[in-house]
Amino acid sequence: MRESRATWMLRYLLPLLLLVSTTAAAQTDVDRLRLAQLEAAYLINFARYTDWPADAFAAPDSPLVILVHGDSTLVKAMTEIATRADPIAGHKIKLRGTRAQDYPTPEELSQLIANSHVLFIDEPFVGAVGELLVQAHAHSVLTVSNAPGFAAAGGMFELVRSGQRVSFDANPESIRTSRLSVSSRVLKLARQLTGGG
Questions:
Q1: For residue 30, is pLDDT > 50?
Q2: Would you give the DSSP letter of residue 124?
């Protein structure tokens, strides 16, 4: 007896489609991990060429705290890169992720920002970016995001994705008014400067 078309599709075509979709999902995860690692490398280098006010660290050997407001894949990738990075101006790098536990309340996030030196906001979690930037600015926190329009909105560095490549825009005015000093060598590499730079 001949198989019906539906039975044939279930028996032969469906497993093939599942294999293709699983392979595509795995490739997407690999691409996402590579992008996260690349963004982490940018983040570390931005920090390496930034000077904070003297009162930003409790002690000369206090850690440089990077707060990553993003999902677990991003936090994991950035933690791996940060762990391998050399200390910055005598400060070991300490990375904290907001998604490692329950999503923080606005008050908890505000406290985390106040105790950080760098804030990275992943695009899906950018939310009320204006309020986050006001808090970060008040505490001389370097702000970085991969959200489109971040630099124009007052963020300091905006990572710009193009396929598997990343470049960045910068907002020198936001950097200057936050009491941070970023090397001109970094700013010269920016794709474009916004905010009066």
A1: yes
A2: G
